[in-house]
Design goal:
about 180 residues, about 0% strand
């Protein structure tokens, strides 16, 4: 039931997202370089809002690590390579639910046709990490962006990086 509530809320946020105004962009401006801000500005409004909610959650929890906060804003930046329409996002969610193994295979295909949304869902972390690196983002933030969908143990992270990744994933999963 929580998953349905989460997905419904996520759909509504995507459906109703309006472009950010200058005041709303201020949090991103305070953390990102001009090159990073250019990437952030290319994201769809719903993804910008999602990233800001992830950032705000981490800040409310007292997190101040710059790599973590930058990764919060840029973790979905790879989606600018092939922006998805709302119906394609719904298609991915349903596909992963109904055909979990097949959706993984679809994500390894070339990005065209009906496989395109699955490819974006699967490969946007790597694409985003590459874009962030080209924009001069620190290696720590780049690694968090690249790994943000990676499954890690929820108990006793093995490294400081895994600890930050766990924090990012928890905030991302809430939004």
């Amino acid at each position: 039931m929580n998953s349905i509530r989460y997905r419904t809320r996520q759909f509504w946020f995507a459906f109703s997202a309006a472009p950010l105004n200058q005041e709303q962009k201020q949090s991103a401006h305070e953390l990102l370089t001009p090159a990073q801000m250019t990437l952030f500005s290319r994201m769809q409004a719903s993804e910008q809002r999602h990233s800001l909610r992830v950032l705000q959650t981490l800040q409310q929890e007292g997190q101040t690590n710059p790599d973590l906060l930058i990764a919060a804003l840029l973790h979905d930046i790879g989606k600018i390579r092939f922006p998805l329409r709302l119906w394609e996002r719904v298609f991915v969610v349903l596909g992963k639910l109904i055909f979990p193994r097949r959706s993984v295979a679809w994500g390894e295909n070339p990005s065209r046709g009906l496989a395109r949304p699955f490819v974006v869902a699967a490969q946007h972390p790597d694409w985003g990490a590459d874009l962030a690196q080209q924009a001069g983002t620190t290696p720590g933030a780049v690694t968090l962006i690249r790994r943000h969908q990676e499954k890690i143990s929820t108990h006793n992270p093995h490294s400081p990086e895994d600890h930050l990744l766990k924090l990012l994933q928890a905030a991302d999963d809430r939004h």
